[in-house]
Amino acid sequence: MTVLLTGAAGFIGMHVGLALLARGETVVGIDNLNDYYDVALKEARLAQLTPHENFSFVRGDIADLDTVMGAVKGVDRIVHLAAQAGVRYSMENPGAYIQANIVGHMNVLEAARSLGGGLRHMVYASSSATLSCHSPWMTRSTIRCRSTPRPRRPMS
Ligand SMILES: NC(=O)c1ccc[n+]([C@@H]2O[C@H](COP(=O)([O-])OP(=O)(O)OC[C@H]3O[C@@H](n4cnc5c(N)ncnc54)[C@H](O)[C@@H]3O)[C@@H](O)[C@H]2O)c1
């Protein structure tokens, strides 16, 4: 299978990419390597993926529809992990969330739609901030619940 992996240079994306390559899949990674955190770390992750002959990489922004449409050609699965993560930063730079998490997410969905029956499966990650301490998925004993502030307006 051929997988479009958005956020390939990210924390989760790199590990997903390595796991897919290890089982013989073809992976098309896309990431804009933005500077929300250390770009050298993202480049180091990417350097673990690029030696694989079944890996190709598009450095680009998922907020650009043409870029996503180009990357999705020939793909039959999508793992969508590119996102602007974090909650506090959404107060500082809300535009980054609109671009990556709303415009970018919609573009990935449009790209998926363009594949029609050729797309077998798509999975994407949401934010843990959508779970609150009152969610049935969280219990009072959950460490994350205690340590994660409940944003009034989670955007990520
Ligand atoms: N790490 C966690 O504990 C955790 C928990 C819950 C949910 N998630 C979700 O999982 C997903 C991946 O998380 P992560 O920890 O790997 O985050 P990450 O920030 O390490 O990786 C995201 C990657 O997406 C890229 N990216 C951001 N905006 C982009 C854009 N517009 N175009 C192209 N690339 C873009 C970034 O450069 C980065 O490499 C996110 O949706 C995050 O909210 C993560």
Commentary on this structure:
By secondary structure, the chain is an alpha/beta fold. The chain has two domains: 124 residues, Rossmann fold; 27 residues, no CATH class. It is 38% helix and 15% strand. The protein has a five-stranded parallel sheet with strand order 3-2-1-4-5, with helices on both faces. The chain is globular and about 40 Å long.
Low-pLDDT residue intervals, each spanning 5 or more residues:
none
Largest sheet: 5 strands, parallel
Fraction of residues in helices? Answer: 25-40%
Named CATH topology of the largest domain: Rossmann fold
CATH class of the largest domain: Alpha Beta
How confident overall, as mean pLDDT? 88
Task: Enumerate how many helices there are, as a single number.
Answer: 6
Which structural traits does this protein have?
single chain, alpha/beta, 2 domains, 6 helices, binds nicotinamide-adenine-dinucleotide
Write the layout of secondary structure elements.
Layout: E1 2-6, H1 11-22, E2 26-31, H2 39-49, E3 55-59, H3 65-71, E4 77-80, H4 89-92, H5 94-114, E5 121-124, H6 143-147
Parallel strand pairs: 1-2, 1-4, 2-3, 4-5
The structure holds nicotinamide-adenine-dinucleotide (NAD).
Summarize this, please?
This protein is of the alpha/beta class and 156 residues long.
